[in-house]
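Hi V.,

You were right to ask for the full record rather than a summary. Here it is.
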Amino acid sequence: MNSSAIAIESHDGQKFDGYLSLPPTGRGPGLVIIQEIWGVNAHIRAVADQYAMDGYVVVAPDIFWRQERNVDLTYDEAGTKKAYQLMQGMDGPDAVADLVATVQTLRRRPEMTGPVGAVGYCMGGRLAYQLAASGSIETAVCYYGGGIQNQLDLARSIKVPMLFHYGAQDPHIPATAVEAVKTAFEGHASAKFHVYEDAGHGFNCWGRPMYQQRASALAHGRTLEWLATHLG
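Predicted structure:
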């Protein structure tokens, strides 16, 4: 893969890293991949590479840099414990501002040929939702975004197309939460929901026991179709 680390300037004049992955052609529309709580680890870098192979100029920003730079955790007990500590210590508004800065940096890249979208997973799914509410991107895809149901007031600020993926067996996001998000988007011009009956939380992460191949493949295909429609 044609990948490298890039510097992103934050809203308060500091610098943090992003993992940039370029498509085989070297050019394409932009995509921000937003990490789970384990940082921009091997899995998230592989996801970024996957979407780069699909033709997108991809950046996965280091969300936890204000606490610790370049977090790269594994899914064992120690890694997961630290991941939760970092998530709980994250400043939400700063994280969204850093994502806006990431989008701005991506738009200035010479490889860019089109609009910018975001795909986020778990914590990143919620952040993708918040980023969409900021008006900084052209579309967002939220994989099992935990906590979106607690921020439904933002839904009225979202004017861009939204795609949501949920697992019906997700112990962290019950069916009532999914229904609440659906209800908040009933008047939205372009919002689509997919619920995977045999999948739980984190079903897209092939490095964890909850990986569900069929749901992951279906969701990836639907996401690609969505991005092709809304980003080109």
